Amino acid sequence: MIKQTPATPTRIHELLEPWIACDPTMPALKDDHASYTYGELKKASIAAAKQLSSWGVRAGDRVLVVGENCAGNGVIALAVSRLDAWLCIVNGRLSQREIDGIIEHAAPRRTLYATHVSADALKHAARHGAEPLDWTGVAKLHLGPLNEQAQAEPCFACPTEQVAALIYTSGTSGAPKGVMLTHANIAFAALSVHAVRGLGPGDVVYGALPMAHVVGLSAQLFGTLACGAELILEPRFSPALMVKAFESGVTCFTGVPAMYARLLEWLREENMSLNAPKLRIIGVAGSPLTQTLKSNVERAFGLPLLNGYGLTETSPTIAQVRTDSARTDCAVGNPIPDVEVRVMDQGRTDVKPGEVGELWVRGPNVMKGYYRNEALTRDVINPQGWFNTGDMARQSDDGALHIVGRTKELIIRSGFNVYPVEVEQVINSFPDVVQSAVVGRTAGHNEEIIAFVEVRTGKLIAEDELRAFLRARLSPYKQPTEIHFMPQLPASATGKVLKSVLKILVEGDKLANRAS
User: Fold this and answer.
1) Who has the most CB within 10 Å: 161, 257, 370, 452?
2) pTM for the whole structure
3) Boundaries of domain holding 52
4) Same-domain check for residues 445 and 348
5) Any domain includes 376
6) Residues 88 and 102: beta-carbon distance below 8 Å
7) What share of the chain in percent tops pLDDT 70?
8) What's the order of all strands across the beta sheet hosting 433-443?
9) pLDDT level of residue 510 (50, 70, 90 thresholds)
10) In a shared domain, residues 465 and 351
């Protein structure tokens, strides 16, 4: 294995350069339609940059890509970096309203549609009058019309100022919220994969997390390329396809808890055991991990499940469990090098170790800000550069962070604080529960706890048995007022449960037909 520490680049496409200098024939990126070595990826991105420029893309322009994971999107991402334009990848599975809202807000100069891997992207392409395009060296895509009204943003030589990607957060309501990540932000997150996870040439990473999501872009795509490893991209998560990939020699995988839960369920249904002869690292991020799922995954894989934590606004990495110090609990690990954290109370005073407070972060991972929303940026980043995550956390004596829940998700019941994640973890440990989500509902001057439970396919759960289970493990004020069983919880493309959808059900009093 080549031993090398990548240098910090001024632009994210330069992350490839050390590995090209070592061996340009090393495998870099592939899917079912194309494959690239590191040398080929550089050549393809240079040609793609020239083509984008001929289509009117300028430095400071936004380039929107609608679709799902594919190697062609990786080429486009590198090409956009070469032009000093802004990359904006959105999932083709978003609704017409969501896609159109992002286009209106981002005002891209050009919009590309990865129609060869996404039937949903094809529908959006047809609505927007995009033309089919066989782009040599990239893929068969659709190209949207030139937006002649698009205004290019200012450009900066400094990587901490120049925006590389505009990422729209999922699960939000109201106006779109675009997070501006600089070249320095993404490069920092990418290089942390090398520093914390120890990936390198010879590693094969399975990429099922959408590149429209910050983990899929910063850590999965650029993190792999920064390490000289190979990335295999999958348009959509499928347990069957993932098992096949593991059998073929994947060495590293990071997913969200829902992916692991569905994989274990699929293995049970198929009466199969996992065969992953070269797999050495499995990670999890994106939503809370429960002790039950962690134990079941580690039993199935024979490997420690390494938890991590971050946000779109932090590029995303804040903390990770190291490969050389696996944990038995569900802590998200220690802050990664060069990232500072503070856990503070409402008076902005640091709480004592072990106490719960609001988590603030400062470091090279913190975003430049929200696009076209300076007021919201000032609300979350103070003059000293500290970013308010909006998450409740506690930090143990060893420095590890434990995420308790979102500040806005905090339920105050009879004067007591109830953190949904604690209730969810207990519910998830009950037999035949795949996952759960807990939200609050206002009831007079109090709040009620409403639980939504996803049940394993073909199974039934008796509510009285579940309630007895909860009473033995949770304080009376933490007991759900209502429990609603669902075949599947609403989720984003990454598998993250969309609590905003559940809140709409609760607040709109639309649960009468769902109660069990």
Assistant:
1) 452
2) 0.86
3) 12-183
4) no
5) no
6) yes
7) 95
8) 433-443, 446-455, 482-486
9) low
10) no
